[in-house]
């Protein structure tokens, strides 16, 4: 595979999706191929069982992509995770520097790592640490490096997940002949694909309707502020329809037909037509209620409304439904601005592919940042750089959640210098 080619894997609760794509010199993405396979053993974004089957599916999808996209052997993949129990918190880390000290890159890294270690809850791991802002002696600054101060304050959004999720991912990695070169929370990948700086700054929410989970991520002041994952999704609606005495495959098709045209759905004679919208809306109300509560309690104004995405978000009525429930403007997400002209096909514009597009966007940005020999800072995004420049400059780490040996991450036990006092507080 070429340096500008990436493989994105979406481990969904109903199907696993693999996308091969390349990033062109002007920053646009050309999709080389898509392969999908029904998933078995993934529930609510968590690998619960059938690890061998999941590993086989990933290897099979990659083999098919190699043939379809006519690319070399796939040895590296990129992933995003969205699992039941993932949550985010806002943490402040303060470093008191006696008599003033020059702020170096090492001091900034130390502040971030100590924040990561001390933010852990019992039986959880910190998956991602995202910088919100730095302050030097009480004054906000974009870049404290090279300045002298007595007090360095960092405000971070930390995303944590259960240790068991990482353990299962580690077992999966031992069974596939691929290396994960980039991983990110799914909410961050969706933000990259669907939002611009103005939307992140002025406040908005992304609702991702999946098969097993429905998630809400709230962005304000340029960064993730809230994350809620509801362990219910499109599969629950299908199951409810199936309880009326029909096969699950037929129930899924009825759900899809209803989303396309509620007034023209072919139903078995034994099925009460008037009952179908009641079944769907009742479950939808249950799924969306926790999200409505979170939005109602949000302290940030969501001036840019709600962006809807995910495989279960396709129904045309969904924006109007969400707008009615939240009293905010709502629209379907659109990742087409990232795609080159020949990739703007109906298949590739599907909202269920927004996550993969976001994974590739961020993986490429991370790669360009690491490879300083490439002249990408000015060229890689050109027009689209406005979508993520400010935001990505604020990302503190996307570093390997799994190291090269595929072992679980180990805490940094390096002692803190006695001259520096680091105090962790939580908003």
Tell me what you see in this structure:
With 427 residues, the chain is α+β, with helices and mostly antiparallel strands. The chain has a domain at 87-160 and 405-426: 2-Layer Sandwich (Dna Ligase, domain 1), CATH 3.30.1490. 32% of the residues lie in helices and 29% in strands. The strands form four sheets. Strands 3-2-1-6-11 form a five-stranded mixed beta sheet, sandwiched between helices. α9 (318-326) links the parallel β15 (306-309) and β16. The radius of gyration is 22 Å and the shape is globular. The model is unreliable at 372-420 (pLDDT under 50).
Keywords:
32% helix, Dna Ligase, domain 1, single chain, 17 strands, 5-stranded mixed β-sheet, 427 residues, 5-stranded antiparallel β-sheet, alpha+beta
**Rg estimate, integer Å:** 22 Å
By CATH, the topology of the domain at 87-160 and 405-426 is: Dna Ligase, domain 1
- Give the SSE order as H and E letters: EEEEEHEEHEEEHEHHEEEHHHEHEHHE
Helix content class? 25-40%
Question: What is the beta-strand fraction?
Answer: 25-35%
Q: Whole-Å distance between the termini?
A: 45 Å
Class computed from helices, strands and strand pairing: alpha+beta
Instruction: Tell me about the largest β-sheet.
Output: 5 strands, mixed
Query: What oligomerization state is this entry in?
Result: single chain
Question: Could you say what the CATH architecture of the domain at 87-160 and 405-426 is?
Answer: 2-Layer Sandwich
The global form is globular
Name of the top-level CATH class of the domain at 87-160 and 405-426: Alpha Beta
């Amino acid at each position: 595979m070429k340096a500008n080619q990436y493989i994105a894997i979406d481990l969904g609760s109903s199907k696993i999706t693999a996308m091969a794509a390349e990033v062109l010199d002007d920053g646009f993405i050309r999709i080389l191929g898509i392969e999908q396979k029904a998933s078995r053993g993934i529930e609510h974004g968590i690998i619960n069982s059938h690890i061998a089957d999941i590993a086989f599916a990933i290897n099979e999808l990659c083999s098919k992509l190699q043939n379809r996209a006519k690319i070399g052997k796939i040895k590296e993949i990129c992933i995003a995770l969205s699992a039941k129990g993932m949550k985010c918190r806002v943490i402040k880390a303060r470093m008191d520097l006696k008599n003033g000290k020059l702020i170096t890159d090492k001091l900034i890294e130390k502040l971030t790592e100590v924040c990561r270690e001390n933010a852990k809850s019992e039986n959880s791991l910190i998956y991602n640490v995202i910088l919100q802002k730095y302050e030097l002696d009480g004054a906000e600054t974009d870049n404290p490096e090279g300045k002298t101060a007595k007090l360095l304050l960092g405000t971070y959004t930390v995303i944590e997940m259960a240790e068991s999720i990482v353990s299962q991912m580690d077992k999966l990695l031992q069974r596939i002949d691929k290396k994960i070169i980039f991983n990110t929370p799914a909410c961050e990948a969706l933000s990259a694909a669907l939002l611009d700086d103005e939307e992140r700054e002025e406040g908005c929410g992304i609702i991702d309707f999946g098969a097993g989970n429905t998630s809400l991520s709230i962005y304000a002041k340029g960064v993730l502020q809230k994350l809620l994952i509801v362990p219910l999704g499109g599969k629950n609606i299908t199951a409810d329809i199936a309880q009326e005495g029909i096969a699950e495959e037929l129930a899924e098709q009825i759900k899809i037909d209803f989303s396309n045209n509620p007034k023209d759905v072919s139903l078995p004679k034994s099925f009460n037509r008037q009952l179908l919208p009641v079944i769907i809306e009742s479950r939808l109300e249950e799924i969306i209620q926790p999200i409505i509560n979170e939005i109602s309690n949000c302290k940030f104004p969501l001036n840019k409304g709600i962006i809807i995405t995910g495989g279960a978000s396709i129904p045309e009525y969904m924006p109007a439904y969400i707008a009615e429930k939240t009293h905010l403007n709502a629209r379907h997400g659109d990742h087409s601005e990232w795609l080159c002209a020949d990739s703007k096909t109906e298949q590739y514009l599907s909202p269920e592919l927004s996550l993969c597009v976001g994974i590739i966007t961020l993986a490429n940005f991370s790669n360009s940042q690491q490879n300083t020999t490439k002249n990408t800072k000015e060229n890689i995004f050109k027009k689209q750089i406005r979508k993520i420049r400010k935001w990505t400059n604020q990302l503190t780490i996307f570093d390997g959640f799994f190291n090269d040996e595929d072992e679980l991450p180990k805490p940094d036990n390096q002692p803190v210098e006695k001259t520096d006092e680091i105090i962790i507080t939580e908003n």
